[in-house]
Amino acid sequence: MDEERALYIVRAGEAGAIERVLRDYSDKHRATFKFEPTDEDKRKKLCEGIFKVLVKDVPTTCQVSCLEVLRILSRDKKILVPVTTKENLQILLRLAKLHESDDSLEKVSEFPVIVESLKCLCNIVFNSQMAQQLSLELNLAAKLCNLLRKCKDRKFINDIKCFDLRLLFLLSLLHTDIRSQLRYELQGLPLLTQILESAFSIKWTDEYESAIDHNGPPLPPQETDCAIEALKALFNVTVDSWKVHKESDSHQFRVMAAVLRHCLLIVGPTEDKTEELHSNAVNLLSNVPVSCLDVLICPLTHEETAQEATTPDELPSDKTAEKDTALTNNAMVYNGMNMEAIHVLLSFMEKRIDKGSSYREGLTPVLSLLTECSRAHRNIRKFLKDQVLPPLRDVTNRPEVGSTVRNKLVRLMTHVDLGVKQIAAEFLFVLCKERVDSLLKYTGYGNAAGLLAARGLLAGGRGDNWYSEDEDTDTEEYKNAKPNINLITGHLEEPMPNPIDEMTEEQKEYEAMKLVNMLDKLSREELLKPMGLKPDGTITPLEEALSQYSVIEETSSDTD
């Protein structure tokens, strides 16, 4: 009934009546996402009627009402097939200021029309394959970049910028060809990076360092939304950047990484928005070539160096808050480098672990990022080692028992999701400089067995990557407890009485043969398969492992 009345007025009424009836329809169906199939044909005709109104010279308020209803109707994929034509899309492009004209964004009264037109385009492109093909033909990505340049340094038009970026994200998500066009032809990487700089109001203090006001206000909601959309679009643009990395791109990636460092050190209007902002920053950092991630840490400024040199005892007793600040700052410093951004990433990772769900989507990106940073940058690895794997003192509990970051990561090493447990184990392995003996000290053999089997390191040794040769120092508490630590569980166990101490030699031989017979029976019935280690450290059936060792011994004898 609503569609019939609206369609009748749209076809025969004047602008004022059209505006009123469509405003009523919009108010009533604002939250409607599922539509009655019986009224499908009426909705198609209403869409067609609205496009006919939009080509006429009607007031701005009438255009807005038309576009609001069109946005609601475009949620229904079925009605978009007949109305998604090149001519209709060109109408929306003109209203969104995406046509070829060089018009500037001066008329504030037109802003609501531009925003609603962009919203309609977002829905139509997302829900219609025909619209996606037409967007390529109409070179929509280039038009969106041109509109972004018009509003790059303008204030009070964040809605336009936000939905422009959202549409750019959708296009680059749905069409891989557009990613390449954005990256190279349209210079999307510097353009979107500048959008982020503008959203964060960044003031550069050095080539890759920005001023951070820790006591400043949170990022405004609209700027936060713009930044999130820009981060998502940048992710698509750079998704294959690890494959092609020219030296000329290095500067641009470093600038982007510096902007993302700034992003990690600020907060949004709410805790949820801050997490969403940081989550998208982490995803984008995963696309940055690892050699450019050194800008995440930076040398201390003169003020920070002076503050770090001031110990808490040197501060007046009545300045308790300043003592806390000094302690906090010292916790973020390693080897003269500011580690705030890395500490934020570590805290973000711990929050994702504590959530206890969606580990693959929410946790693996930040774990992978920290792993690659640690593998490539010594200072980052050593700082994270201090934070995650501090020197062992109390080893009475199993490594997976407790509430420290180490305990949480060790628990993930036996997670049911193969990808999650692999990246968690890899992170700890890299922090241990890929040395098996060091990893086992912190995790126990049982928790690390999966990683060591996959790497062919069950017999010990170290990984393929090179690390500095500085040795770990054990605490006195650990040295004293070490002889009684169970290597499998990784914790201190009181000496247990040996059950065979009081057996005679005949009893020992009898129990040994009994065990051999039981294992033989399980093996013959294929309920259990004895395994052995090949010379390269990987697991193989016992017969094959023994035969390989026999070949090696025969070769050695022939050589002698």
TrEMBL record:
Coiled-coil positions: none
InterPro entries per record: ARM-like, ARM-type_fold, Chaperone_Ric-8_A/B, Gua_nucleotide_exch_fac_Ric8
Compartments, record wording: Cytoplasm, Cell cortex
Signal peptide residue numbers: none
Superkingdom of origin: Eukaryota
UniProt cross-references to Pfam families, sorted A to Z: Ric8 (PF10165)
Keywords: Chaperone, Cytoplasm, Guanine-nucleotide releasing factor
Primary location: cytoplasm
Function recorded in the entry: Chaperone that specifically binds and folds nascent G alpha proteins prior to G protein heterotrimer formation. Also acts as a guanine nucleotide exchange factor (GEF) for G alpha proteins by stimulating exchange of bound GDP for free GTP.
The family this protein is said to belong to: Belongs to the synembryn family.
Complex and partners: Interacts with some GDP-bound G alpha proteins. Does not interact with G-alpha proteins when they are in complex with subunits beta and gamma.
Protein name listed in UniProt: Synembryn
Organism: Microtus ochrogaster
